[in-house]
């Protein structure tokens, strides 16, 4: 990871002073870097590792950072990981261009090294993430998200990137198409579990999160605990929840009322059960491979996905 960080920094260098300054700001405020870890471990599970793996991890991190910068513009967010967002400091126009720069740098890493399999994995992830975001925006307007549509949204918007991490890790060490696809599916299932865990946080009072509960409700996002609750309560309660989400989503007392209804009607228990189902399906895929340190670490990383506190 230390060597990766140096390579990642080098991939961000620019002769444009403003851009270089912003890249330095981004590097200093990096997150958990869970996605590069998925890349490295998905290569090492095959007892292989090479320079292509570092490039794959850098591509993933460039793509992920680009989406975060663009997401903050879309959501008009002023903070990211407790620090000012790029758009808060340098305004939307610059933030959009920074996101475009990061995305292009990531794609160029593959093109310049003629790694077209990696390029296909990355480009497919970008396509899925864009479609997932637009599908969520479309459905949020009408609040008619079914469980199947919800899973389609999170598969594309969130899980596709973690799937790309695992597929690109296997691809970087020359694994066959079957193993690359197995790792992609493993990553997809881990990503879905990751997103459901995020859904559960919105109903938690855990102060470690650094944010208040009910943010998804205020943003009119239909999460799994909420969808389950709407499908399993009487019509009057359902109409009340939909009315709050549509017309009173900024009212703290009303939002708290929705949170309580979700808790009382088994929404959190149901979402937890589904999250653990995807967790176990991901574990089953890992069991198809021989035991080694990377496999053990992937299991630990998967445990972290469902047990993390923030």
Can you summarize this structure?
The protein has 14 helices and 2 strands; from the N terminus they run H-H-H-H-E-E-H-H-H-H-H-H-H-H-H-H. It has 310 residues and is mainly α. It has one domain: Farnesyl Diphosphate Synthase, CATH 1.10.600.10.
pLDDT averaged residue by residue: 87
What's the CATH class label?
Mainly Alpha
Main β sheet profile: 2 strands, antiparallel
User: Can you tell me the residue ranges where pLDDT is under 50 for at least 5 consecutive residues?
Assistant: 207-211
Which class of secondary structure composition applies to the elements?
mainly alpha
Reported by name, the CATH topology is Farnesyl Diphosphate Synthase
Assembly status:
single chain
- β-strand percent reads under 5%
Protein topology:
Layout: H1 2-11, H2 17-28, H3 34-44, H4 51-74, E1 79-80, E2 83-84, H5 86-112, H6 116-142, H7 147-172, H8 177-201, H9 215-218, H10 224-231, H11 235-247, H12 252-264, H13 267-286, H14 293-307
Antiparallel strand pairs: 1-2
Helix pairs in contact: 1-4, 3-4, 3-7, 3-14, 4-5, 4-7, 6-7, 7-8, 8-13, 8-14, 10-13, 13-14
């Amino acid at each position: 990871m230390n060597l990766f960080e140096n390579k990642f920094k080098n991939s961000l260098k620019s002769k444009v002073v403003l851009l270089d300054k912003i890249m330095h700001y981004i590097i200093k405020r990096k997150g958990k870097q869970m996605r590069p870890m998925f890349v490295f471990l998905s290569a090492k599970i095959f007892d292989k590792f090479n320079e292509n793996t570092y490039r794959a991890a850098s591509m993933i991190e460039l793509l992920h950072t680009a989406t975060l910068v663009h997401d903050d513009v879309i959501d008009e967010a002023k903070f990211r990981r407790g620090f000012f967002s790029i758009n808060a400091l340098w305004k939307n126009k610059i933030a959009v261009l920074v996101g475009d720069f990061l995305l292009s740098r990531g794609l160029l890493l593959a093109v310049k090294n003629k790694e077209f399999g990696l390029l296909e994995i990355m480009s497919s992830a970008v396509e899925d993430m864009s479609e997932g975001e637009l599908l969520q925006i479309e459905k949020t307007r009408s609040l008619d998200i079914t469980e199947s549509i919800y899973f389609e949204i999170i598969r594309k918007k969130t899980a596709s990137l973690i799937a790309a991490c695992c597929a690109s890790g296997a691809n970087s060490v020359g694994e066959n198409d079957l193993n690359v696809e197995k790792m992609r599916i493993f990553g997809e299932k881990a990503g879905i579990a990751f997103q459901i865990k995020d859904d559960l946080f919105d109903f938690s009072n855990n102060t470690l999160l650094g944010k208040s509960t009910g943010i998804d409700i205020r943003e009119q996002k239909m999460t799994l605990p909420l969808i389950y609750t709407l499908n399993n309560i009487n019509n009057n309660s359902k109409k009340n929840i939909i009315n709050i989400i549509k017309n009173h989503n900024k009212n703290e007392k009303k939002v708290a009322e929705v949170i309580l209804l979700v808790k009382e009607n088994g929404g959190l228990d149901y979402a937890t059960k589904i999250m653990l189902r995807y967790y176990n399906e991901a574990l089953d895929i890992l069991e198809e491979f021989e035991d080694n340190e990377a496999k053990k670490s992937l299991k630990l990383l998967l445990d972290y996905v469902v047990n993390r506190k923030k």
